[in-house]
Amino acid sequence: MIREIRLLGDPVLQAESEIVSIERAKANVYSVLIEDMLETMQSHKAVGLAASQVGESVQIVVIDTRNASQERSEMIIGDVPQDVAQNMPMVLLDPVITYAEGKTLSREGCLSLPGVMINVTRSKLITVGYTKPTGETAEFTCMGFLANVVQHELDHLKGILMYNRADAATKASISGSLKKIMKYRKFQDTVKKLESAKNNEPTPSL
Question: Which of 111, 142, 143, 190 is most exposed by smallest CB count within 10 Å?
C-alpha cells in the first residue's frame, strides 16, 4: 500500500524514532510496514525513505539507489567490493554509523520537503551497522551517492531534516518554500478533519 508522505511541520518528523524490537522483527510484525515503505518509495521514484516519513516512529529505513543509476556509489561488505545495484533495495533496522571520514558536498532533495533542493555537507565514507528484517546483524561500508542517501535517511531517525544542516544563507533562501509546505500541510489536516467529521455524521432516518 502506498502511504501518505508526512510533510514539514508534522511532529513525527521532528521526533527521534524508537528502536526496533528484534523479537517483533523476527515475528514479522514490521513486514507490512516495510512492504508499504518500499512501494511508497518506488511510487515516488525516490532513493530512500524513513519510517517517520510515513508516520511510523520506528528506526526503519529503505534505500534503492537504482532510481538514480547515473549517480556513482561504492559499497564494501567485509573486504569485498560489491555491485551496488545487486544489493538493492536495502532494508535497515536500527542503523548506526560506526565510522565516518572525509567531507563532501551533497545536493539533496526530500519527499517531506517537496520542491526544495539544497547543498548539505556529508561524510565522504561511512560504515553502517544495522539489523536485517530477519533479526540478523550486518555491516557495510559505502562512498559516493549511497553514503549521502544513508546519512540523509538516518538523520530522519533522529528527527533531523536536511534544512537543519544548512547554513544560515541557505535557510534564508528557502524560507519561503518551507512556509508554503507547512501551509499546505495545515490545509491537508483541515481537509482530513472535515472528512472525518462527515464520515461520523449519523445517517438520517427515512
Answer: 190
3: Cα within 13 Å, side-chain hemisphere: 22
Cα-to-chain-centroid distance, residue 201 = 37
Residue 59: name the closest of 27, 89, 77, 34 by CA.
Answer: 34
Q: Give the C-alpha separation, 114 to 106, whole Å.
A: 17
73 half-sphere exposure, CB direction, 13 A CA radius: 30
- Provide the whole-model pTM: 0.90
The answer to whether residue 153 is catalytic is yes
Residue 101's CB is within 10 A of a number of other CB atoms, namely 10
Q: Tell me the C-alpha distance between 99 and 94, whole Å.
A: 15
Catalytic residue from among 4, 16, 108, 153: 153
**DSSP symbol at 58:** B
For 25, the 3-state DSSP assignment is: helix
Render each residue's pLDDT in the chain as its tens digit; 206 residues. Answer: 999 999 999 999 999 999 998 888 888 899 999 999 999 999 999 999 999 999 999 999 999 999 887 789 999 999 999 999 999 999 999 999 999 999 999 999 999 999 999 999 999 999 999 999 999 999 999 999 999 999 999 999 999 999 999 999 999 999 999 999 999 888 787 777 777 766 776 655 55
